[in-house]
Please model this.
Amino acid sequence: MLLSPLCCSNTVVRINGSNRISMDVFTDYIALPDRVRGCVVAIGNFDGAHKGHQFLLERARNMARDQGCGFAVLTFEPHPRKLFRPDEPPFRITPAALKLERLEACGADFVIQLNFNWDFASQSAEKFVGDILMDGLAATHIVVGNDFHFGQLRKGTPQTIRDAGLDITVIEKVCDDGDSAFSSTRIRQELRHGNIAAANKILGWEWEIHGEVVKGDQRGRELGYPTANMSLGDTVHPAYGIYAVRTQIEGEDKWHAGAANIGIRPMFEVPIAQAETFIFDFNHEIYGKTLRVKPVQKLRGEAKFGSLEDLIDQMEKDCAEAREILKMN
Model:
């Protein structure tokens, strides 16, 4: 399971142009307000905020309520894996903006989101405990997963925190009915195989992709299927193909039905994979707005067709199938 010189508080965090977070988010641990110091603190990367994470976060939240104090989450951006293995393909289940949403959904009062750079990674475990947990956060209790390590060369363990005199609870791995631990690795594997329902079962919520709608090459419009195009960014790439999706446009509460091509479009050889969503019964310009796309089910893999007519025929079949799937879900 699982720096700037001055503290910066944002009571409303801007997420891809959309105000979706109401909790306080801090990007440093220095000179924190009194309401943030003295909290129960859960520590981790929490990519995915899956059922195992949710169990840990709920335990921490309940401890905070019992003690009459706040509940804070200490996390790190970018994900350490991005620093240590920068050439790996995108892997984030929940890029930073989406992760904040999920942490708030788990009941966090505050998030302290620290910049994970080489200076931060090279500090000793003892310095992490003394400077951040004790002096900065004045944490009353720490909650971590049983595989939690920190500090230079990951030498710090929960025992390091105990030895410093702090109270700590270590949460063992949480497993499903098949005795498999809920994990971000499992979720990535399911997504990369296009198994959306299986990934969502581990997550405990419906996985989604966020992005700003950008102008593409207008191919979809020419074919009679105009799409809202967006980059996948740091988001893990699900299996390339056609999906039945639900999508929400910035500024709206409604979720629209649609079909999306996620990948490189073999017919036109897009150099970088992206999500292109055809929203059913919708005909408005939404360039520059944030789109939230929830893949529901993969229909088929990407394919190259002999002609544009064959492609259009298949797109018509895909949309009909997607409509039926979304009616059943």
Observations:
- The chain has ten helices and 15 strands.
